[in-house]
Design a protein that fits this description.
alpha/beta, Zincin-like, five-stranded mixed beta sheet, three-stranded mixed beta sheet
């Protein structure tokens, strides 16, 4: 419950910025008449929020980018608008993650010559960035797709190291250091510090 309250402090509005390697969000403000005219025009990947017969927000998801179009009086702080935007962002991130993350795992497996049994993109418990099953299947949370590239690859390589070592003792960290090409323990601590300001917001967008 406390975790849910913490996530509820976030809001999605034109101040929200997302520019990552695989997904970006851009905002466009137009006059109300233009928004009403644009709403009924069907486009691939388009979603429209209408309240009281008036178009409030249009989102166009092209895969790598989400364009959000609104008018100056759109009330972003209302629960209805926030729920719609959050659902839209969750779907956009999850769809992109299911495309990108398995492909990235395959790329790194081929690069390192180290292979598992598959990849699943799914919601994981809080503070878990990935897991590797006893059958060497990697599970990754959708929000990993909006990480910085080096953070994403670090998580994937961490789980790939579990193909060989099913623990976090010294042989695991030594092997992960080989995969990363740098000291794995130091990199892990540095990434934890760098990621911490963003982690809850990433979870908020996909929970």
């Amino acid at each position: 419950m406390e975790a849910d309250r913490a996530l509820n402090r976030f809001i999605i509005n034109p101040s929200f910025r997302l520019q990552s390697t695989y997904l970006s969000v851009d905002w466009y403000v137009v006059d109300p008449a233009t928004l009403q005219a644009e709403g009924p025009i069907a486009r691939p990947g388009q979603s429209v929020l209408t309240l009281r017969g008036k178009v409030q927000v249009i989102a166009v998801n092209s895969g790598a980018r989400v364009d959000i179009i609104y008018h100056p009086d759109t009330e972003f702080d209302t629960p209805t608008v926030q729920k719609w935007l959050r659902n839209m962002m969750r779907e956009a991130i999850t769809t992109r993650a299911c495309e990108i993350l398995p492909a990235r795992v395959r790329y790194l497996e081929n690069l390192k010559g180290l292979y598992g049994s598959g990849v699943k993109v799914r919601k994981l418990p809080k503070n878990i960035l990935g897991c590797c099953t006893g059958r060497n299947e990697i599970h990754l949370p959708p929000f990993l797709v909006i990480f910085r590239q080096d953070w994403m690859d670090g998580v994937i390589l961490h789980e790939m190291a579990h193909y060989v070592h099913k623990h976090h003792r010294k042989p695991f960290w030594d092997f992960l250091s080989q995969l990363l090409g740098t000291d794995a323990r130091a990199a892990d601590a540095k990434n934890d510090i760098a990621l911490s300001p963003y982690f809850d917001y990433y979870r908020f967008l996909t929970s």
